[in-house]
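Let's practice the habit of predicting before peeking. Look at the sequence and jot down your guess about where helices and strands might fall. Then scroll down.
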Amino acid sequence: MKVSRRSFVKASGLAITGSGFVASFLNCAENSPQSGIHNMVQDVVPLSMDDYRNRIEKARVLMGENNIDGLLLTGSTNLRYFTNTSWGRSERTFGAVLNKKGDPVWLCPAFELERAQERIKIGYDDIRTWEEHESPYSLIAGIMKDLGVSGGKLGIGPTVRHFVVEGLRRDAHQLQLVDGAAITEGCRGVKTAKELGYMDLANKITKLAYRDAFSKIMEGMTRAEFGALVREAHSGMGVSGGGGAQFGQNSAFPHGSSVRRDLHKGDILLVDGGCGVEGFRSDVTRTIVFGTPSDKQREVWDIVKKAQTAAQNAVRPGVTCESIDMAARKVVEDAGFGPDYKFFGHRVGHGIGMEGHEYPYLVRGNKLKLQPGMTFSNEPGIYIYGDFGVRIEDCFYVTEDGGKFLGGMESLAIDDPFGE
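Done guessing? Here is the structure:
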C-alpha cells in the first residue's frame, strides 16, 4: 500500500498536547497493582507495516526537501527503523536504497539471498545480488541509474561505515555522496503517538523496577546484587532491562567507578538504566540515600532537582536545544557549583528513541528548535569527587505548549524518589 503525504501526516499523530493518548494505549500501566511487578507489555500493540510505510513516506518527503535522490542504509538501527529488517554488520555490504519513486531497492551478497528473502518485508521483490568477486558499489550505482538518477545525490546513512563510502567513491564515482542525516534524524527525531506510548511504558517500567529494588536494599549489598534486583524486576514486567548503581563516593563518577564499594548506611545510591518496549528505550536515573540523608546530601539533591525543574519549565516548541541546557546550568551555577562544567560536567540531555542516546542533544551550541513529538532526557547532576554525586533523570516529550515527563513518577525529594 502506498501512503500519501496527507495520510502520513494524519497517521503520525503529532498533535500532542498532553498524555491522553497514554491512557488509551497503556491502560494496563494505569491499573498496576501496588507492587507494579507483573507483565505490563502483553497487551501492547506492535508496529504495523503501515507504520513502517509511513516512515518511508516521511523519508521521501525529506529527500525532496533536501534535494537527495536516494538514501543508502546498511545494517543498523536506521535500517530496522525504516524497513523492519535486522541485519548484522560485516565486511560484505548489505543494505537498501530508499528512494522517491517506490519501495526500497536492496543489495545483498548472492549467497545470502535466501536469508534476505526471509527477513525483508518491504521491497522483497527487488533484491539485487553481487558475487564474491564483484563490487557491491557498482551495484549501487546501477540501482541509482535504474531509478533515473545515475549522477544524482546519494545520501549516506550516518552509521554506514567508511570502507563503504570509499568503495562508492572508487566504483560509483558518478554519484554525488552527501550526508543522509537530515533524513534519518529528521524522521527519528520526532516520534508518533504510538512510539511515545512505547516510551511512556518503558520509562514507567524502569521506575517501578527501581522502586522494587530500593525496597530490598541492605547493608553490605554489592553493586552486582543490586543490579540483579533491577534486572529481575524488569523481567517480571515482561522486558529485558537493568540499571547500574554506584554507592557512596563512587556516585561522583558520572559513568561509574571501577573501584569496588559496597553499600553502607549514609551512602548515596545512584542508579542509571532502562529497558525497551517494542524497540523504544527508557533512560532513568534516581539518587537516594541508604539511611538518613545528611544536610549536604539533601542540599545538593534539592539544587539538582531545581535545575531539572528549570530545564523542564523552559521546554516548549520553538525554543532552541541549547536553551534547555542553559536553564539547568544557571541554577547549578547560581547555587555555587560552578563555574560552567566544574561540577555539572555534561550536557543536560540527549535525544532518545530506538537508541538510548540519539540525535538531537540538549547542549550548548545546538540551535535546533524543539518540535512537538521530540523526546529527550532531562538529567542535570552535581558531582563532587571524594564525596558524592547526585543526578536525577527523567525522559520527556515536547507537547504543543510545553513538555511532559514519560512514565510519570517524578522525584519530589531525596527520600521521595517516585512522587509517592
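How did you do? DSSP finds 13 helices and 17 strands in the chain.
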